[in-house]
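Table S4 entry, ABC transporter family substrate-binding protein.
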Amino acid sequence: MKHTRIPVALVATMAVASLGLSACSSSGGSKAGSSAKPSATSLAANTIKINAQPRSALKQGGTLTWAIDQYSTQWNYNQINGAEYSTDAVIEAVEPIIFRVDPATQKVTPNTNYLTGMPTVTTVNGKQTVTYNINPKAKWSDGTAISYKDFAAQWQALNGKNTKYQIGSSTGYSNITSVVAGTSPQQVVVTFDQNFGDWTSLFAPLYPASAQSTPDEFNKGFLNKIPVTAGPFKIESMNATTSTVTVARDPNWWGDPAILDKIVFRAMTTDAADGAFANGEVDYLNIGPSAAGVKQAQGRSDGEIREAAGPQFRHVTFNAKSPLLSDVKVRQALFQAIDRTAIANSDLKGLGWPALLLNNHFFMNNQEGYQDNAGVLGKYDPTAAKAALDAAGWKLNGQYRQKDGKTLELTFVYPDGTAVSKNESVLLQAMFAAVGVKLDISAVPSDDFFDKYVQPGKFDLTAFSWLGNAWPVSSNYSIYQSPVGSNNFQNFAWTSDPNVDSLMNKSIADLDHTQAIADANAADKAIWQDAGVFPLYQRADIYGAKKTLANLGAPQDQDEVVYENIGFTS
Protein backbone atom coordinates (compact mmCIF):
# COMPACT_ATOMS: atom_id res chain seq x y z
CA MET A 1 0.00 0.00 0.00
CA LYS A 2 2.67 2.42 -0.91
CA HIS A 3 2.22 5.91 -2.21
CA THR A 4 5.58 5.62 -3.91
CA ARG A 5 6.99 3.19 -6.41
CA ILE A 6 9.85 0.92 -5.38
CA PRO A 7 13.14 0.72 -7.21
CA VAL A 8 14.61 -2.77 -7.17
CA ALA A 9 18.24 -3.48 -7.82
CA LEU A 10 17.92 -7.23 -7.56
CA VAL A 11 17.23 -7.72 -11.22
CA ALA A 12 19.14 -4.78 -12.41
CA THR A 13 17.30 -2.94 -9.80
CA MET A 14 13.62 -2.71 -9.23
CA ALA A 15 11.55 -0.02 -7.63
CA VAL A 16 8.01 0.18 -6.14
CA ALA A 17 5.21 2.39 -7.31
CA SER A 18 1.72 1.58 -8.30
CA LEU A 19 0.67 -0.11 -11.43
CA GLY A 20 -2.36 -2.11 -10.36
CA LEU A 21 -2.81 -4.91 -12.86
CA SER A 22 -6.11 -6.61 -13.38
CA ALA A 23 -5.46 -10.18 -12.30
CA CYS A 24 -7.06 -13.54 -11.86
CA SER A 25 -6.19 -15.97 -9.10
CA SER A 26 -3.92 -18.88 -9.78
CA SER A 27 -1.45 -20.93 -7.83
CA GLY A 28 1.42 -23.31 -8.26
CA GLY A 29 4.62 -23.02 -10.23
CA SER A 30 5.48 -23.21 -13.90
CA LYS A 31 8.62 -23.83 -15.89
CA ALA A 32 9.90 -20.88 -17.87
CA GLY A 33 9.46 -21.58 -21.54
CA SER A 34 7.37 -24.68 -20.84
CA SER A 35 4.30 -23.32 -22.62
CA ALA A 36 3.59 -21.27 -25.72
CA LYS A 37 4.92 -17.75 -25.66
CA PRO A 38 2.21 -15.56 -24.09
CA SER A 39 0.72 -12.69 -26.05
CA ALA A 40 -0.03 -9.23 -24.70
CA THR A 41 -3.71 -10.09 -24.40
CA SER A 42 -3.03 -13.33 -22.51
CA LEU A 43 -0.83 -11.73 -19.86
CA ALA A 44 -3.80 -10.72 -17.71
CA ALA A 45 -4.71 -14.41 -17.36
CA ASN A 46 -1.28 -15.22 -15.99
CA THR A 47 -0.82 -12.76 -13.19
CA ILE A 48 -0.36 -14.67 -9.95
CA LYS A 49 1.59 -17.81 -9.08
CA ILE A 50 1.97 -18.15 -5.31
CA ASN A 51 1.06 -21.78 -4.48
CA ALA A 52 -1.94 -20.51 -2.51
CA GLN A 53 -2.75 -22.78 0.44
CA PRO A 54 -5.00 -22.51 3.50
CA ARG A 55 -3.20 -22.14 6.82
CA SER A 56 -4.48 -25.57 7.85
CA ALA A 57 -2.52 -27.20 5.00
CA LEU A 58 0.83 -25.86 6.19
CA LYS A 59 3.20 -27.38 8.68
CA GLN A 60 3.91 -25.23 11.70
CA GLY A 61 7.33 -23.67 12.06
CA GLY A 62 10.36 -23.63 9.84
CA THR A 63 12.67 -20.93 8.50
CA LEU A 64 12.36 -19.19 5.13
CA THR A 65 15.53 -17.76 3.59
CA TRP A 66 14.58 -14.90 1.27
CA ALA A 67 17.15 -13.29 -1.03
CA ILE A 68 16.91 -9.50 -1.31
CA ASP A 69 18.98 -7.17 -3.44
CA GLN A 70 20.74 -5.08 -0.80
CA TYR A 71 21.26 -4.68 2.91
CA SER A 72 19.57 -1.38 3.63
CA THR A 73 20.80 1.29 5.97
CA GLN A 74 17.60 3.35 5.99
CA TRP A 75 14.65 1.30 7.27
CA ASN A 76 12.14 4.14 7.25
CA TYR A 77 10.37 3.33 4.00
CA ASN A 78 8.98 6.88 3.79
CA GLN A 79 12.39 8.53 4.01
CA ILE A 80 14.04 9.50 0.72
CA ASN A 81 16.51 6.59 0.86
CA GLY A 82 14.00 4.04 2.16
CA ALA A 83 11.64 3.28 -0.72
CA GLU A 84 13.42 0.19 -2.01
CA TYR A 85 12.35 -3.40 -2.53
CA SER A 86 14.80 -4.73 0.03
CA THR A 87 13.51 -2.35 2.70
CA ASP A 88 9.89 -3.02 1.82
CA ALA A 89 10.21 -6.80 1.96
CA VAL A 90 11.46 -6.65 5.55
CA ILE A 91 9.31 -3.79 6.82
CA GLU A 92 6.02 -5.32 5.75
CA ALA A 93 6.75 -8.32 7.97
CA VAL A 94 7.12 -6.18 11.07
CA GLU A 95 5.18 -2.92 10.62
CA PRO A 96 1.48 -2.10 10.09
CA ILE A 97 0.03 -2.40 6.59
CA ILE A 98 -3.49 -1.18 7.22
CA PHE A 99 -5.02 -2.30 3.92
CA ARG A 100 -4.76 -5.44 1.83
CA VAL A 101 -4.96 -5.66 -1.95
CA ASP A 102 -6.72 -8.73 -3.31
CA PRO A 103 -4.33 -10.22 -5.88
CA ALA A 104 -7.19 -11.54 -8.00
CA THR A 105 -9.31 -8.39 -8.19
CA GLN A 106 -6.99 -5.61 -7.00
CA LYS A 107 -9.79 -4.64 -4.61
CA VAL A 108 -8.57 -2.84 -1.50
CA THR A 109 -9.87 -4.13 1.82
CA PRO A 110 -9.04 -3.25 5.44
CA ASN A 111 -6.46 -5.31 7.31
CA THR A 112 -8.59 -6.10 10.35
CA ASN A 113 -5.51 -6.66 12.48
CA TYR A 114 -5.21 -2.87 12.46
CA LEU A 115 -8.64 -1.52 11.46
CA THR A 116 -12.03 -2.72 12.66
CA GLY A 117 -13.51 -2.25 9.19
CA MET A 118 -13.40 -0.16 6.05
CA PRO A 119 -13.02 3.55 6.90
CA THR A 120 -16.00 5.76 6.17
CA VAL A 121 -15.71 8.52 3.59
CA THR A 122 -17.95 11.56 3.90
CA THR A 123 -18.06 15.17 2.77
CA VAL A 124 -18.08 17.72 5.59
CA ASN A 125 -18.38 21.38 4.61
CA GLY A 126 -17.33 20.41 1.12
CA LYS A 127 -14.20 18.63 2.37
CA GLN A 128 -13.44 14.94 1.85
CA THR A 129 -13.23 13.31 5.29
CA VAL A 130 -12.08 9.77 6.06
CA THR A 131 -12.66 8.19 9.47
CA TYR A 132 -10.56 5.19 10.55
CA ASN A 133 -11.36 2.98 13.53
CA ILE A 134 -8.27 1.26 14.91
CA ASN A 135 -8.42 -2.28 16.28
CA PRO A 136 -8.18 -1.78 20.08
CA LYS A 137 -5.78 -4.74 20.31
CA ALA A 138 -3.25 -3.10 17.99
CA LYS A 139 -0.12 -1.93 19.77
CA TRP A 140 3.55 -1.21 19.17
CA SER A 141 6.28 -3.48 20.51
CA ASP A 142 7.05 -0.93 23.24
CA GLY A 143 3.50 -1.44 24.57
CA THR A 144 2.05 1.86 23.25
CA ALA A 145 -1.38 1.56 21.68
CA ILE A 146 -1.58 2.45 17.98
CA SER A 147 -3.59 5.67 17.85
CA TYR A 148 -4.42 8.82 15.92
CA LYS A 149 -1.07 10.23 17.14
CA ASP A 150 0.80 7.89 14.79
CA PHE A 151 -1.36 8.94 11.83
CA ALA A 152 -0.98 12.62 12.71
CA ALA A 153 2.80 12.38 13.07
CA GLN A 154 3.10 10.60 9.73
CA TRP A 155 0.99 13.27 8.01
CA GLN A 156 3.07 16.08 9.54
CA ALA A 157 6.28 14.38 8.42
CA LEU A 158 5.11 13.65 4.87
CA ASN A 159 3.00 16.67 3.91
CA GLY A 160 6.03 18.47 2.49
CA LYS A 161 5.71 21.64 4.55
CA ASN A 162 8.84 21.08 6.64
CA THR A 163 11.71 20.39 4.25
CA LYS A 164 13.90 19.11 7.09
CA TYR A 165 11.94 15.88 6.77
CA GLN A 166 13.79 14.11 3.95
CA ILE A 167 10.77 12.45 2.38
CA GLY A 168 10.36 10.26 -0.68
CA SER A 169 6.90 11.60 -1.53
CA SER A 170 4.26 13.99 -0.23
CA THR A 171 1.56 12.66 -2.59
CA GLY A 172 -1.80 12.58 -0.86
CA TYR A 173 -0.42 13.82 2.44
CA SER A 174 -0.07 17.32 0.99
CA ASN A 175 -3.84 17.24 0.31
CA ILE A 176 -4.66 16.77 4.01
CA THR A 177 -5.57 19.70 6.25
CA SER A 178 -5.94 17.90 9.58
CA VAL A 179 -5.58 14.56 11.36
CA VAL A 180 -7.33 14.47 14.74
CA ALA A 181 -8.86 12.05 17.21
CA GLY A 182 -12.53 11.25 16.85
CA THR A 183 -14.55 9.83 19.72
CA SER A 184 -11.44 8.12 21.14
CA PRO A 185 -7.68 7.98 20.51
CA GLN A 186 -8.35 4.87 18.41
CA GLN A 187 -10.57 6.79 15.99
CA VAL A 188 -8.75 8.86 13.38
CA VAL A 189 -10.46 11.64 11.43
CA VAL A 190 -8.54 12.77 8.34
CA THR A 191 -9.78 15.85 6.47
CA PHE A 192 -8.61 16.76 2.97
CA ASP A 193 -8.64 20.24 1.45
CA GLN A 194 -8.48 18.67 -2.03
CA ASN A 195 -10.07 15.38 -3.02
CA PHE A 196 -7.67 12.46 -3.11
CA GLY A 197 -9.11 9.41 -4.82
CA ASP A 198 -6.29 7.08 -3.78
CA TRP A 199 -6.63 7.73 -0.05
CA THR A 200 -6.28 3.98 0.66
CA SER A 201 -2.63 4.26 -0.40
CA LEU A 202 -1.81 6.44 2.62
CA PHE A 203 -0.45 5.56 6.07
CA ALA A 204 1.17 2.31 4.92
CA PRO A 205 3.52 1.25 6.14
CA LEU A 206 2.54 3.07 9.31
CA TYR A 207 5.35 4.07 11.65
CA PRO A 208 5.03 5.07 15.32
CA ALA A 209 4.81 8.72 16.32
CA SER A 210 8.03 8.22 18.26
CA ALA A 211 9.87 7.62 14.99
CA GLN A 212 8.66 10.68 13.10
CA SER A 213 7.58 13.49 15.41
CA THR A 214 10.75 15.46 14.64
CA PRO A 215 12.89 15.60 11.49
CA ASP A 216 15.79 14.00 13.36
CA GLU A 217 13.62 11.08 14.49
CA PHE A 218 12.23 10.68 10.97
CA ASN A 219 15.59 10.81 9.20
CA LYS A 220 17.67 8.88 11.73
CA GLY A 221 15.30 6.91 13.98
CA PHE A 222 15.32 3.88 11.67
CA LEU A 223 18.85 4.35 10.38
CA ASN A 224 20.69 1.01 10.69
CA LYS A 225 17.98 -0.28 13.04
CA ILE A 226 14.29 -1.12 13.37
CA PRO A 227 13.61 -0.17 17.01
CA VAL A 228 9.81 -0.49 17.16
CA THR A 229 7.54 -3.01 15.41
CA ALA A 230 3.88 -4.01 15.26
CA GLY A 231 3.53 -6.99 12.96
CA PRO A 232 3.32 -10.78 12.99
CA PHE A 233 7.13 -10.88 13.16
CA LYS A 234 9.64 -8.98 15.27
CA ILE A 235 13.30 -8.25 14.69
CA GLU A 236 15.57 -10.96 16.05
CA SER A 237 18.86 -9.76 14.60
CA MET A 238 20.38 -7.39 12.05
CA ASN A 239 23.89 -8.11 10.85
CA ALA A 240 25.53 -5.72 8.40
CA THR A 241 28.61 -7.96 8.19
CA THR A 242 26.65 -10.96 6.89
CA SER A 243 24.06 -8.70 5.21
CA THR A 244 21.17 -10.49 6.90
CA VAL A 245 18.05 -9.45 8.78
CA THR A 246 16.30 -12.18 10.76
CA VAL A 247 12.70 -11.74 11.89
CA ALA A 248 11.01 -14.15 14.30
CA ARG A 249 7.38 -14.89 15.14
CA ASP A 250 6.19 -12.27 17.62
CA PRO A 251 4.38 -13.95 20.57
CA ASN A 252 2.72 -10.60 21.38
CA TRP A 253 1.04 -10.38 17.96
CA TRP A 254 -2.72 -10.24 18.41
CA GLY A 255 -3.67 -11.69 15.02
CA ASP A 256 -3.28 -15.16 13.56
CA PRO A 257 0.17 -16.30 14.64
CA ALA A 258 2.81 -16.57 11.95
CA ILE A 259 3.16 -20.09 10.52
CA LEU A 260 6.94 -19.72 10.16
CA ASP A 261 9.31 -19.50 13.10
CA LYS A 262 11.64 -17.16 11.23
CA ILE A 263 12.39 -15.41 7.96
CA VAL A 264 16.02 -14.69 7.14
CA PHE A 265 16.36 -11.87 4.61
CA ARG A 266 19.75 -12.26 2.98
CA ALA A 267 21.15 -9.48 0.81
CA MET A 268 23.03 -10.74 -2.24
CA THR A 269 23.91 -9.66 -5.75
CA THR A 270 21.68 -11.16 -8.43
CA ASP A 271 24.35 -13.51 -9.69
CA ALA A 272 25.17 -14.73 -6.19
CA ALA A 273 21.50 -15.20 -5.34
CA ASP A 274 20.92 -17.36 -8.42
CA GLY A 275 23.75 -19.66 -7.33
CA ALA A 276 22.57 -19.72 -3.73
CA PHE A 277 19.10 -20.81 -4.80
CA ALA A 278 20.48 -23.52 -7.07
CA ASN A 279 22.55 -24.81 -4.13
CA GLY A 280 19.60 -24.83 -1.74
CA GLU A 281 20.93 -21.99 0.42
CA VAL A 282 17.99 -19.72 -0.45
CA ASP A 283 14.30 -20.66 -0.61
CA TYR A 284 12.93 -17.66 -2.50
CA LEU A 285 14.40 -15.04 -4.81
CA ASN A 286 13.49 -12.62 -7.55
CA ILE A 287 15.26 -13.93 -10.66
CA GLY A 288 13.94 -11.28 -13.03
CA PRO A 289 14.57 -11.40 -16.77
CA SER A 290 17.67 -13.57 -16.56
CA ALA A 291 17.78 -16.69 -18.72
CA ALA A 292 20.95 -17.78 -16.94
CA GLY A 293 19.24 -17.38 -13.58
CA VAL A 294 16.23 -19.36 -14.74
CA LYS A 295 18.47 -22.15 -16.06
CA GLN A 296 20.28 -22.33 -12.73
CA ALA A 297 17.01 -22.40 -10.79
CA GLN A 298 15.57 -25.14 -12.98
CA GLY A 299 18.51 -27.34 -12.02
CA ARG A 300 17.32 -27.49 -8.41
CA SER A 301 15.30 -30.68 -7.91
CA ASP A 302 13.15 -29.33 -5.06
CA GLY A 303 12.73 -25.88 -6.62
CA GLU A 304 10.53 -24.39 -9.30
CA ILE A 305 10.02 -21.26 -11.34
CA ARG A 306 6.99 -19.09 -10.54
CA GLU A 307 6.43 -16.60 -13.34
CA ALA A 308 3.63 -14.19 -14.10
CA ALA A 309 2.83 -10.88 -15.73
CA GLY A 310 4.45 -8.45 -13.36
CA PRO A 311 3.26 -4.92 -12.61
CA GLN A 312 6.72 -3.65 -13.39
CA PHE A 313 8.82 -2.30 -16.21
CA ARG A 314 12.43 -1.87 -17.24
CA HIS A 315 13.52 1.62 -18.12
CA VAL A 316 16.50 3.88 -18.72
CA THR A 317 16.65 7.08 -16.67
CA PHE A 318 18.46 10.12 -18.09
CA ASN A 319 19.78 12.59 -15.53
CA ALA A 320 18.63 16.05 -16.65
CA LYS A 321 20.82 17.57 -13.90
CA SER A 322 23.89 16.29 -15.74
CA PRO A 323 25.45 19.21 -17.71
CA LEU A 324 25.62 17.20 -20.93
CA LEU A 325 21.99 16.09 -20.63
CA SER A 326 20.42 19.36 -19.45
CA ASP A 327 19.20 20.09 -23.00
CA VAL A 328 15.90 18.25 -23.52
CA LYS A 329 16.64 18.10 -27.26
CA VAL A 330 19.73 16.01 -26.55
CA ARG A 331 17.75 13.63 -24.32
CA GLN A 332 15.02 13.32 -26.95
CA ALA A 333 17.63 12.55 -29.60
CA LEU A 334 19.13 9.81 -27.44
CA PHE A 335 15.68 8.28 -26.94
CA GLN A 336 15.52 7.81 -30.71
CA ALA A 337 19.01 6.31 -30.74
CA ILE A 338 17.88 3.39 -28.55
CA ASP A 339 16.60 0.19 -30.15
CA ARG A 340 14.22 -0.99 -27.45
CA THR A 341 13.25 -4.11 -29.37
CA ALA A 342 16.87 -5.25 -29.51
CA ILE A 343 17.30 -4.63 -25.78
CA ALA A 344 14.07 -6.43 -24.86
CA ASN A 345 14.87 -9.41 -27.08
CA SER A 346 18.36 -9.63 -25.60
CA ASP A 347 17.20 -9.24 -21.98
CA LEU A 348 14.41 -11.78 -22.39
CA LYS A 349 16.22 -14.30 -24.59
CA GLY A 350 15.57 -17.82 -23.41
CA LEU A 351 12.71 -16.86 -21.11
CA GLY A 352 9.76 -17.65 -23.39
CA TRP A 353 8.31 -14.25 -22.55
CA PRO A 354 7.07 -11.66 -25.08
CA ALA A 355 9.10 -8.53 -25.69
CA LEU A 356 6.26 -6.10 -25.07
CA LEU A 357 7.55 -2.56 -25.49
CA LEU A 358 5.95 -0.16 -23.04
CA ASN A 359 4.74 3.20 -24.33
CA ASN A 360 3.17 4.55 -21.15
CA HIS A 361 4.67 5.65 -17.83
CA PHE A 362 1.57 4.89 -15.72
CA PHE A 363 -0.24 1.90 -17.16
CA MET A 364 0.92 -1.57 -18.22
CA ASN A 365 0.07 -3.14 -21.58
CA ASN A 366 -2.63 -5.33 -20.01
CA GLN A 367 -4.04 -2.67 -17.72
CA GLU A 368 -7.13 -0.56 -18.08
CA GLY A 369 -6.14 2.92 -19.23
CA TYR A 370 -3.15 1.88 -21.30
CA GLN A 371 -2.55 3.78 -24.52
CA ASP A 372 0.53 4.44 -26.63
CA ASN A 373 1.70 7.98 -25.90
CA ALA A 374 5.31 7.62 -27.05
CA GLY A 375 4.96 9.13 -30.52
CA VAL A 376 8.22 9.53 -32.47
CA LEU A 377 10.29 9.35 -29.26
CA GLY A 378 9.38 5.69 -28.92
CA LYS A 379 10.56 4.80 -32.42
CA TYR A 380 14.13 3.68 -33.06
CA ASP A 381 15.43 6.16 -35.63
CA PRO A 382 19.20 6.73 -35.55
CA THR A 383 18.99 9.00 -38.60
CA ALA A 384 16.59 11.31 -36.76
CA ALA A 385 18.78 11.09 -33.66
CA LYS A 386 21.83 12.25 -35.62
CA ALA A 387 19.91 15.16 -37.14
CA ALA A 388 18.59 16.23 -33.73
CA LEU A 389 22.08 16.14 -32.20
CA ASP A 390 23.40 18.19 -35.11
CA ALA A 391 20.61 20.73 -34.55
CA ALA A 392 21.50 20.88 -30.84
CA GLY A 393 25.02 21.91 -31.78
CA TRP A 394 26.75 18.57 -31.18
CA LYS A 395 28.71 18.05 -34.39
CA LEU A 396 30.61 14.92 -35.32
CA ASN A 397 34.38 15.40 -34.96
CA GLY A 398 36.00 12.11 -35.81
CA GLN A 399 34.27 9.23 -33.98
CA TYR A 400 32.37 11.32 -31.44
CA ARG A 401 30.41 14.56 -31.26
CA GLN A 402 31.75 17.77 -29.77
CA LYS A 403 30.40 21.17 -28.83
CA ASP A 404 32.36 24.12 -27.44
CA GLY A 405 35.41 21.89 -27.17
CA LYS A 406 33.63 19.22 -25.11
CA THR A 407 33.00 15.65 -26.21
CA LEU A 408 29.49 14.21 -25.75
CA GLU A 409 30.74 11.55 -23.33
CA LEU A 410 28.29 10.06 -20.85
CA THR A 411 28.49 7.47 -18.06
CA PHE A 412 26.06 4.60 -17.52
CA VAL A 413 26.03 3.46 -13.87
CA TYR A 414 24.70 0.06 -12.80
CA PRO A 415 24.88 -2.22 -9.72
CA ASP A 416 27.74 -4.68 -9.97
CA GLY A 417 26.71 -8.33 -10.23
CA THR A 418 23.54 -7.53 -12.17
CA ALA A 419 23.79 -9.27 -15.52
CA VAL A 420 20.73 -7.63 -17.09
CA SER A 421 21.99 -4.11 -16.45
CA LYS A 422 25.44 -5.02 -17.71
CA ASN A 423 23.91 -6.41 -20.89
CA GLU A 424 21.88 -3.24 -21.40
CA SER A 425 24.91 -1.03 -20.85
CA VAL A 426 26.88 -2.83 -23.57
CA LEU A 427 23.99 -2.60 -26.04
CA LEU A 428 23.46 1.09 -25.27
CA GLN A 429 27.16 1.76 -25.68
CA ALA A 430 27.06 0.39 -29.25
CA MET A 431 23.80 2.21 -30.10
CA PHE A 432 25.14 5.54 -28.86
CA ALA A 433 28.44 5.05 -30.68
CA ALA A 434 26.46 4.61 -33.90
CA VAL A 435 25.20 8.21 -33.57
CA GLY A 436 28.53 9.65 -32.38
CA VAL A 437 28.01 9.58 -28.59
CA LYS A 438 30.57 8.02 -26.26
CA LEU A 439 29.12 5.97 -23.39
CA ASP A 440 31.35 4.85 -20.53
CA ILE A 441 30.20 2.04 -18.25
CA SER A 442 30.63 2.09 -14.47
CA ALA A 443 29.73 -0.87 -12.22
CA VAL A 444 29.27 0.23 -8.60
CA PRO A 445 28.67 -1.80 -5.40
CA SER A 446 25.08 -3.03 -5.27
CA ASP A 447 24.53 -1.79 -1.69
CA ASP A 448 25.60 1.73 -2.73
CA PHE A 449 23.75 1.91 -6.04
CA PHE A 450 20.65 3.84 -4.91
CA ASP A 451 21.87 5.72 -1.86
CA LYS A 452 25.22 6.92 -3.22
CA TYR A 453 24.62 7.14 -6.96
CA VAL A 454 20.98 7.17 -8.10
CA GLN A 455 19.42 9.32 -5.38
CA PRO A 456 22.10 12.07 -5.37
CA GLY A 457 22.24 12.06 -9.18
CA LYS A 458 25.80 10.81 -9.60
CA PHE A 459 25.21 9.30 -13.04
CA ASP A 460 24.28 10.31 -16.56
CA LEU A 461 22.19 7.24 -17.36
CA THR A 462 21.11 4.19 -15.42
CA ALA A 463 18.61 1.36 -15.74
CA PHE A 464 16.48 -0.57 -13.28
CA SER A 465 12.90 -1.75 -12.85
CA TRP A 466 9.98 0.03 -11.27
CA LEU A 467 7.75 -2.39 -9.33
CA GLY A 468 4.05 -1.52 -9.22
CA ASN A 469 0.96 -1.81 -7.05
CA ALA A 470 -2.71 -0.84 -7.10
CA TRP A 471 -2.55 2.95 -7.45
CA PRO A 472 -1.30 3.76 -10.97
CA VAL A 473 -1.03 7.54 -10.79
CA SER A 474 -0.53 8.51 -7.16
CA SER A 475 2.20 5.94 -6.64
CA ASN A 476 4.04 7.15 -9.73
CA TYR A 477 3.59 10.81 -8.85
CA SER A 478 6.87 11.12 -6.98
CA ILE A 479 8.83 9.79 -9.98
CA TYR A 480 7.69 12.59 -12.28
CA GLN A 481 6.86 15.51 -9.99
CA SER A 482 9.08 18.57 -10.17
CA PRO A 483 11.88 18.62 -7.58
CA VAL A 484 11.54 21.07 -4.70
CA GLY A 485 14.90 22.59 -3.83
CA SER A 486 17.37 19.78 -3.23
CA ASN A 487 14.61 17.18 -2.81
CA ASN A 488 13.89 15.32 -6.03
CA PHE A 489 11.58 12.83 -4.27
CA GLN A 490 11.91 9.77 -6.56
CA ASN A 491 12.39 11.89 -9.66
CA PHE A 492 15.83 10.51 -10.40
CA ALA A 493 15.72 12.18 -13.83
CA TRP A 494 15.52 15.61 -12.16
CA THR A 495 13.03 16.86 -14.76
CA SER A 496 10.84 19.82 -13.83
CA ASP A 497 7.53 20.40 -15.60
CA PRO A 498 4.66 22.37 -13.99
CA ASN A 499 2.31 21.06 -16.67
CA VAL A 500 3.01 17.47 -15.65
CA ASP A 501 2.49 18.41 -11.99
CA SER A 502 -0.85 20.04 -12.80
CA LEU A 503 -2.13 17.12 -14.87
CA MET A 504 -1.09 14.54 -12.28
CA ASN A 505 -2.71 16.62 -9.53
CA LYS A 506 -5.93 16.69 -11.50
CA SER A 507 -5.83 12.95 -12.12
CA ILE A 508 -5.36 11.97 -8.47
CA ALA A 509 -8.12 14.39 -7.43
CA ASP A 510 -10.57 13.04 -10.03
CA LEU A 511 -13.29 10.96 -8.42
CA ASP A 512 -14.57 10.05 -11.88
CA HIS A 513 -12.56 6.99 -12.94
CA THR A 514 -12.76 7.65 -16.67
CA GLN A 515 -11.64 11.25 -16.28
CA ALA A 516 -8.78 10.20 -13.99
CA ILE A 517 -7.46 7.88 -16.71
CA ALA A 518 -7.79 10.60 -19.36
CA ASP A 519 -5.86 13.08 -17.22
CA ALA A 520 -3.18 10.49 -16.46
CA ASN A 521 -2.66 9.89 -20.17
CA ALA A 522 -2.45 13.63 -20.79
CA ALA A 523 0.27 13.79 -18.16
CA ASP A 524 2.01 10.83 -19.74
CA LYS A 525 2.21 12.55 -23.13
CA ALA A 526 3.97 15.48 -21.46
CA ILE A 527 6.32 13.15 -19.56
CA TRP A 528 7.41 11.60 -22.85
CA GLN A 529 8.34 15.03 -24.16
CA ASP A 530 10.42 15.75 -21.04
CA ALA A 531 12.56 12.73 -21.98
CA GLY A 532 13.70 11.76 -18.51
CA VAL A 533 12.45 8.20 -18.04
CA PHE A 534 12.52 5.97 -21.13
CA PRO A 535 10.33 2.87 -20.63
CA LEU A 536 11.74 -0.23 -22.27
CA TYR A 537 9.35 -3.14 -21.80
CA GLN A 538 6.89 -4.71 -19.39
CA ARG A 539 9.00 -7.07 -17.36
CA ALA A 540 8.25 -10.67 -16.64
CA ASP A 541 8.00 -11.36 -12.92
CA ILE A 542 10.08 -14.50 -12.43
CA TYR A 543 10.83 -15.99 -9.04
CA GLY A 544 12.62 -19.09 -7.88
CA ALA A 545 10.85 -20.85 -5.01
CA LYS A 546 11.23 -24.05 -3.09
CA LYS A 547 8.36 -26.24 -4.31
CA THR A 548 6.84 -26.55 -0.84
CA LEU A 549 6.84 -22.79 -0.20
CA ALA A 550 3.23 -21.57 0.00
CA ASN A 551 1.49 -18.20 -0.26
CA LEU A 552 4.44 -16.43 -1.80
CA GLY A 553 5.54 -16.11 -5.41
CA ALA A 554 4.95 -14.02 -8.51
CA PRO A 555 4.05 -11.28 -9.12
CA GLN A 556 2.46 -10.68 -5.73
CA ASP A 557 3.08 -7.07 -4.74
CA GLN A 558 4.15 -6.83 -1.10
CA ASP A 559 0.76 -5.33 -0.19
CA GLU A 560 -0.78 -8.66 -1.19
CA VAL A 561 1.57 -10.78 0.91
CA VAL A 562 0.05 -11.99 4.18
CA TYR A 563 3.25 -12.69 6.04
CA GLU A 564 1.64 -14.68 8.83
CA ASN A 565 0.27 -17.11 6.20
CA ILE A 566 3.61 -17.85 4.52
CA GLY A 567 4.77 -21.40 5.20
CA PHE A 568 5.75 -24.76 3.79
CA THR A 569 3.57 -27.70 2.86
CA SER A 570 4.57 -31.11 4.19
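Residues 1-5, 8-45 have pLDDT under 50 and may be disordered.
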